[in-house]
Amino acid sequence: MARTVWDSSVGKKTVMAVSGLIMLLYLVVHMIGNLKIFFGPGEFNDYAHWLRTIGEPFMHYEWTLWLIRVVLVAAVVAHATSAYQLSRRDIKARPSKYVHKKPRADYATRTMRWGGIILGLFIVWHILDLTTGTVHPGGFQEGHPYQNVVDTFSTWYGNVVYIVAMLALGLHIQHGFWSAAQTLGAGSRTRDRALKTTANVLALLLTVGFLAVPVGVMTGVVS
Amino acid sequence: MTYTDYETGEPVLDTKAPSGPVNERWDKRRFEAKLVNPANRRKHTVIVVGTGLAGGAAGATLAEQGYHVVQFCYQDSPRRAHSIAAQGGINAAKNYRNDGDSVHRLFYDTVKGGDFRARESNVHRLAQISVEIIDQCVAQGVPFAREYGGLLDTRSFGGVQVSRTFYARGQTGQQLLLGAYQALSRQIAAGNVEMHPRTEMLDLIVIDGRARGIVARDLITGRIDTYFADAVVLASGGYGNVFYLSTNAMNSNATAIWRAHRRGAYFANPCFTQIHPTCIPRTGDHQSKLTLMSESLRNDGRIWVPKAKGDTRPASRIPEDERDYYLERIYPSFGNLVPRDIASRAAKNVCDEGRGVGPGGQGVYLDFADAIQRMGRGAVEAKYGNLFDMYQRITDEDPYEVPMRIYPAVHYTMGGLWVDYDLQTTVPGLFAIGEANFSDHGANRLGASALMQGLADGYFVLPATINDYLARNPHQESATAGHPAVQEVLAETEDRLNLLLSVDGDRTPDSFHREVGELMWEFCGMARTDAGLRKALERIPQIREEFWRRIKVPGTGEEFNQSLEKANRIVDYLELAELMCLDALHRSESCGGHFREESQTPDGEAARRDDEFTYAAAWEFTGTGRAPALHKEDLVFEYVHPTQRSYA
Amino acid sequence: MKLTLRVWRQQNADAEGAMSTYEVDGISSDMSFLEMLDTLNEELILKGEDPVAFDHDCREGICGACSLVINGDAHGPERTTTCQLHMRSFKDGDTIDIEPWRASAFPVIKDLVVDRTAFDRIIQAGGYITAPTGAAPEAHATPVPKPDADFAFEHAECIGCGACVAACPNGAAMLFTSAKINHLNVLPQGAPERETRVLDMVAQMDDEGFGGCTLTGECATACPKGIPLVSITSMNKEWLRATRKVARR
To answer: Chains A and C: how many Cβ contacts under 8 Å?
Structure first.
């Protein structure tokens, strides 16, 4: 069955849909966690610490977090690989363009591929910045995420990168969520409106929720 | 000897139709027919030309039986044959409505509708098989209209008093054709059918008196090839495109049947053409084809023209008392619902009087104002919405506001290659099915009967009768390309195409097609006269001569060349047109779609002359421009006794 | 009307193609688009030039042969087939770009004519119900609920023209393939082959080199018969169901 799925264009789309939904679920949780920053360093840092202790005493320190990380990496890899292979296939299927060009589809649909690449690069930067601290501006302090976040959004480029990425994320989810529903066969004529609305609401909530943090830092609400 | 000095040859005596009670003949014939051992069938190759309802059904069924089928169509896919354009429905004597229908009634209606010029045995078989067709198509997944209970819906069609027409909205032909196409596709995938799309038959190969193959041109590469088989089946459709403007597809053509005729197959009743009354009129000289609208429109629309000649006022400004509802006036009891041929002829008459409407005065009004007032716009929309939309798209006029304009157009040809009860032509091993043969509709075809006949021939009749021929003519050493007869046909074909390419004249193929088409429409169309037909017969050889002097075909034969395809088809139209006129001239009676002005009743109706013309006229080719020989097949009516139609 | 036409000309499959410019005059707004091209071709023949090759047959919007991309739209600006498009959709002095369907699975044969046999092979892979002639049960033996019959019909309306592929930025044949699968899979007669049909047809579609679906919706917008985009969703659902079922066997 795995072979059938992976060999088929419809199957690869299914892989994309499922991995996308896993990431989407994670993002919702992540976004809610982020908002704790508005309640001060104490609550935010405690929350970050709690993430490492989920499942204790059954799980050892950080086991659950690592499990989540593994699932997420698998989702990202599956999503990106399918996307890459499907895109290659799509480009090959339509090698010559029409001479008479017309703007096609809506913006969110047309930017799925570039948006995906932007998000991929963003994830790498985001991890190097706030997880490992490799490219963190100023001194990265393990165990003090509040300060780390404030540091990042105190630089102009930190804000720019983050804001661009979050706008791309919004667009990606807007088409991606609805698209995943179609791929998994959940769409129907009667449900189409509801699905599109859900996609729009999700995209908007996540974008606004994530952007609240840099905006908070910039306006001095978070400092 | 001029073309009109034809000789009457031996009558056709043996139609192979069994004797005995009419309802037992098909069983009897099937039982008497020899069978081919299933294990041997794959050694037999059958060529099928065309993939419409008849050809598609035959190809699929023969392949299912185990024969090796080699099939051809000029279209890029077997799914596009013109059967796809049939709108109305398909008749079957299922009697699901319990309204008194029966096989015998369908048989009776068809013989009578054909104005007593069809073979009773064949028509009865058609009516018997009609019920099996519906079963077959439903099993294939044809999405016929259904009622809320999940059972099949039917409607009454074409003035018939029972509700026996099965339909799939206005696309019955499409759905039936796709069913046959899918069955054929299954056999292609299984390797039992070798399909050649974009390949056009250009001639028939006859060796030792038997059809053994065809010459065909690959329309992409231009390559001319020979294909051999144990039997050849022509399912290439009708020849309505002789008229240039018709409801046929642009590329529908007569080449396959005409070339077969030239190789010895008799051509029967070529003058029997059906002219459909409710088509959208032409808009100008650029017109390339005509579009039909379902005749169901006549159920609620009222047909009229202005009383005064040359009245150019818009319809809305012509007051009620200056309108002539001529069908209601002349045929008070049937009114707008008179049969197709009568409605068509009446429209022609009022236009000839100078009372036609629209551009060129070639149209009559079909007015829904009363219907809209009586039923309300909503009800009219529900009933005819899709037709109104189609009309508006083509004409840019809103039929809810202004009356539709309609005019008759060539629609179907009842004539075709003469076939016996087995659907075999006079060339042994050559079969003709569907509209390509002449068999079942006599002088006039009833609505929703073309689909029935095409599928009956393809699914059931031919696959049963061709066994007999193949069994009696056991597989011989394959005819080889080296046989002198093959080389001769091949060379003739190549020469013809080369000649077309080399004339390099100053007229396009279309200009000749249009010229002969207009001539035929005028003199061999809705009403025919001795003088007119003679005029056409004088003119056609002149056009032919001019054609070979002035035709211009660009490009070469070794490439995709649509002008060459067209020009080559016109070569055959220019000969077939002549035979149609001769047949119309010799049949000095009126019957069905053939109306001779000399033969009408005092009130202007078609008058048959049964004592002289109760026969099918089968013509034998003797050479281009030379008088053909007439062979008569006498028609015997044991069950349905000829009566004169009256609709007044 | 006087028009400038820019038409894709390509001698054969192997030749390079390019746009050529032609002027046509005396075009009536009542002409169909193909009749306008007929007019151009008549002039070209008389001038001794090669007429423009294009596919067409029934000219009443049902055979699916005609296939032109007009000003970047498959079948032109109206939602109909090219043959049912009329010149009143254009105005005097317009420049009209005419191109063939573009997809690697639809190679150009000549000018505006493309090879669509890939569609036939998709049907051959499973777009049928196995019902050999003569083996059919009585038609009323299996009633079909009207909503199912209507659903089947809506999808069976596909004319196989390929506009969906031409309009899709990925050259995908999902709408075409889904239309046939949905037509047959909803019917009780189609049930025995329900799983193999969708799996085999989708596999064939992939093998032909069509692209995948990114749900841009261009196909459904271009479809002259109004096959809805959700048809693809239903096919995906059928495919997933079949994959699960076959895995369990």
So the answer is: 135
